[in-house]
UniProtKB/TrEMBL annotation:
Cross-referenced Pfam families: Auxin_inducible
GO biological process, one term: response to auxin
Entry's family note: Belongs to the ARG7 family.
Protein name per Swiss-Prot or TrEMBL: Uncharacterized protein
InterPro entries noted in UniProt: SAUR_fam (IPR003676)
Amino acid sequence: MRWWHALILRSSDDSNYPTQQGYAVVYVWSDWQRFEIMARYLDLPVIIGLLKKVEEEFGKAQPSSGLSLPCEPLFFWWVLQLLDQDESILRPWT
């Protein structure tokens, strides 16, 4: 199990902001904007790359109580729009 799975489970238990089943909560740096993303997106290279950047900088301790990604909210929103249109765009070739 990847280290960030525990953070996802912990953040999805927050009763103030319930998360849909099959989704994960991530916080995007700069203004800690909250996004709910499909859990399967966590296996995409673009997301894994952001998570590795966090791990390099902070180790396995995240700077917030949930899963945090080091990018601008507008960039992350753009990535999610691409994924909604065609998830295969950001999947590695098999």
